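Technical appendix A lists one of the benchmark inputs used to test multi-chain prediction within the project. The record comprises four sequence entries:
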Amino acid sequence: MLAPCIRIPAGTVHDPPMLEKSPHSKVTINDVAEKAGVSAMTVSRVMRNQGKIAPETRAHVLKVIRQLNYEPLSSARNLSGAYSRTIGIVIPYANDFREFRHGYEYEYALLIGALNVCKSHDFAVNIIETRDSNDVNLLVKKVLARQIGGYIVPAPASEYLDLLKTLKAHKLAFSTISAHDQTDSDLTVLADERTATQALTQKMLDLGHRRIAFIGGAPERRASVERQAGFLAAIHAHPDRDRIVYALHDCTAFFDDGLETGLRVLSQPQSQRPTAVQCLTDDIAAGVIAAAHRLKIPMPEGLSICGFDNFGLARKLSPALTTASLPAEDMGEAAALQVIDALEGRARQSVTTLPCKLVVRESIASAPLD
Amino acid sequence: MLAPCIRIPAGTVHDPPMLEKSPHSKVTINDVAEKAGVSAMTVSRVMRNQGKIAPETRAHVLKVIRQLNYEPLSSARNLSGAYSRTIGIVIPYANDFREFRHGYEYEYALLIGALNVCKSHDFAVNIIETRDSNDVNLLVKKVLARQIGGYIVPAPASEYLDLLKTLKAHKLAFSTISAHDQTDSDLTVLADERTATQALTQKMLDLGHRRIAFIGGAPERRASVERQAGFLAAIHAHPDRDRIVYALHDCTAFFDDGLETGLRVLSQPQSQRPTAVQCLTDDIAAGVIAAAHRLKIPMPEGLSICGFDNFGLARKLSPALTTASLPAEDMGEAAALQVIDALEGRARQSVTTLPCKLVVRESIASAPLD
DNA sequence: CTGAAAGCGCTAACAG
DNA sequence: CTGTTAGCGCTTTCAG
């Protein structure tokens, strides 16, 4: 996909803008100190809001910093400081994705969030690719060597107990995202996937659907557990619950498996076939939609479908998919914030839970009359 | 979408693996020097393959390095070295993407490639978000301050002439990806999008299509120009060219615009309506597919469609989309390699052109008989 | 071919 | 509340 153009101000194409003043703008902390008539240490303290500084001194230093456009050099800070101002985000080995290209949207969204927060706190983000448990040692080593200050550990890595236990044993700062079991991490970010899934199911029930399938769910994943629980909760809470027929179908979180499972589920005689299919992920839903097209089942009249995640895919499917948004960017932000707070000694424990919004599109409709 | 699980070796869940030896494994260059009986300087030279070292000394130092599992600390290198071992990849301001979530796959694929190469050369990658021309100064400043060594500048930033001119004027190391105009950069990575598009069109013609529309194309983008040129080349080279009816429809590279344009193009009377639509991007193709579904045009029997890019989306559409793969990961690798070579004084000029593979799926078929 | 000295820019630890 | 003194781990520069 072509990315959108950067806005180009008209008429400047032939004048490459020049830098403000000095040819090599490497303003150091000493330049600031000298110009402000204080010691470098005072400047350092002002930069980091640390220790007690007289308000006037502080204001003056701040002014000089702005005048000189001073920015501390992260390498120097990392080298001398107690911890590295770089946060690692632990992501599965990307080359595994490469062959199939099944989508990097979850990862990139997390990254954007983390980047956002880190930028404003003057931290950097490093992607740490993880292949298996042996990499845990590497993670620890990077912190001890002050290569990395702390980690963001999103699912699926956050489901890896060894990893969490080891990080914890070494007292590293790390925040898990969507961890299956949070007992091993003091900092955690979660999405309320259960409530959103329940609302989605509720919507199906409101539309009159009484034969509903739920497709998805490796049980070792928090997302699977929570989303399935939401589905069941909606059904069990319904006054009509005894007349609702539902089925749970296991499959991985991906398209191909969704297609296969979809074909199996939808090939049943029409009187038994579900009129609504709720999927663990949009990827699975895309597979089910493909299956329905292949079986010439009209959507949404003959079959309602919904998914979960709402990355780029959902609205590009036909019919456009009803789903719930996983707020991955916000989750990345929250996790980065937790790690930074921990490193700077501001908080030792914290759980952030974010809501998931419903996104209703054309893939659902009233249940067909039998 | 749920990411795939990291492989968890069985039976290790309750034994968090411990680090090899020392509690704080920060092996420094001095540790290596001492153990090897040489000076730190010699170790440094061995690490960087620089200067002339006696083969024996070299081998011995290398052995000790491996024994101690020594890894140089990037912050220290950046601080003392002539350039920073961090490469910046210039990407549009991600929060612009956030509202629409139209997909981050191109960016992430580039990133993966860059990461791959950087890791093996012991460089880091930093994402540099760019909003507009003012950020150019920031880019230059970061290099002068040794925050960043050099840049990868992929489209769309590589279409921004001011940016390129400024980087060049400051003699920074940077490699453009898919630049519209390469005169301002000595290092460039391109994909042969023209040939692939031509092959795609050829395929349509071979299938008997004689009324073909090409949808897409902001002319300031290299991808637009090259892909459209490929389309026209195929038609003009065809023996039947005088009986081929084609149309070029402009639109942005995205889904919504593709849908709108698709509706317009396909709403024509059937005798005039194209039997094949070739799209600038898979995103546009998804829009056209949605339009065709809405107009109840059967695919591929009544309409053949193809796109370009082959990220996650293409195979998840119904019908699965025929397209060409933009080798974004490879392009990211190639660009990173060029920048690293330039920084290390190995090459001053270089153009790498990568092929795009065709991916035939179910969205194309023989032209319907009129 | 190898080494010694000096310092990159910043902050910890300790003094005032 | 502020300053001084030492480095962090590596590479540059200049001598052997």
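Chain A touches chain B through 109 residues (CB under 8 Å). Residues 26, 28-30, 40-41, 44-45, 48, 72-73, 75-82 of chain A lie near DNA strand C (CB under 10 Å from a C1'). Comparable benchmark entries are summarised in Table A2.
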